[in-house]
Each structure stands twice: as structure tokens, then as C-alpha cells.
Amino acid sequence: MPSSPFRIALTGGPGGGKTTSADLFRREIGDSVVIVPEAATILFQGGFPRSLQPSALRHTQSAIYHVQRHLEDEYATLYPGRVLMCDRGTIDGAAYWPGPEEEYFAALQTTRAAELARYDAVIFFETAAVGGSSIEGGNPIRNETLAQAIALDAKLRALWSHHPAFSLVPHHASFFQKISFGLQTLQSIVQQLKPSH
Question: Is residue 1 part of a domain?
């Protein structure tokens, strides 16, 4: 069942350009769209501890999942007539979970299918790391190496590619060209699917 209002999950490995694309698209389109911020960034900037211990990672991803869901639902309530562009989605945590994806969904009492159904479309921005490019991008929260970014990108793509409205924005040597393609993809999806809502 399609969600209401219309939701697009913007995801992909670190340093893919999703946040930049979302901001540019919102500036261009105006009040018809709103960006749901990334839950992990909010939590980590607010002082939520980071640890590589498996038990701590489980607590972290559980917290991110619940904050993400509540953020999306709150924005849906506050902006019922706008397209929600979600900076990441509830499935992302499975790529960071210290165990199999089935364990992640079971721990959160949900399924991948149920979480995919929350979104009307998915746009996957491939990490710049696959081309050996820097992924730093001015985000002080990001701490992945290039190798880790590539591994996360692959896990995330495997998780999200099952969505029936999955679109890929591949890496490009020109960031400008990549973002332009991402913006065209966003515009096409909004134009095609928004009238049905």
C-alpha cells in the first residue's frame, strides 16, 4: 500500500551525494517537497555514543530505526500535502547491524517487506568511494574508510534493490554530472507518481 504522503527514500553508501541532491531539489521545487533529516546524524550530533562493540551497535541501530520512523511520521503529519524526501530510510540499519539482516528485522519486530512498503520510491546514490574519490564531504559525523564505504554501499544496494520503484544513480567522475542525473531522476519520479496520491 502506498504511504501518505508520497515518500522517497534517498539512500546509498557514504559520500554518494544524496543529501546535496535533496537540498538542491528542494530549493528548485519549493514548498511542494520537504526533507526528512537523517536520524543517525541527529543522534550522533546530539551526543549519542558511538562504539564498535556488537551490543552497542545493536542499541545504536535500534535507536536510529525508531527515530527515523518517528521523524518520517511526524513530517507526514506536519506536511501532509508535500513529498517527503527521506535522507536514508528504516532499512539502512540492517547494513550496519553486527549480524545477519534477518536478525535486525526480527529485533525490531518488522520485516524488510514491511519497511520497503513505507516508501513509494527509492533512489540509490552509489558512493564516490567506488571510483576512489573522497567521501569526506564536510560531514564531521562520517568516519568510514573508502573500503568500508564500498562494503556498506554493496550491503545497502542489496537491501534496497528489492523495491519495485528502485532507481540507481551511479558513480561518475564528475560530481556535477552525477548530481544532475540524480536531480533528473528525482524530478521524473515525482512527476510520474505524485498524481496518484
Answer: no
* pLDDT at residue 73 greater than cutoff 60: yes
Q: Residue 125, Cα to own-chain centre: how many angstroms?
A: 9
Nearest one of 126, 48, 37, 136 to 88, comparing CA atoms: 37
The answer as to whether 2 is a domain residue is no
Read off the pLDDT of each residue in 64-92 and give the average, rounded to a whole number.
95
Strands 83-87 and 33-36, by their bridges, are parallel
- Domains identified in the chain, total number: 1
141 pLDDT more than 70 = no
Can you tell me the distance from the alpha carbon of 128 to that of 110, in angstroms, rounded to the nearest whole number?
A: 31
Q: Name the packing angle between helices 175-193 and 18-29 (round to 10°).
A: 60
Q: Is the peptide bond before 5 cis (omega within 30 degrees of 0)?
A: yes
Q: Where are the alpha helices (H) located in 79-123, listed in sequence order? A: 93-96, 101-107, 112-116
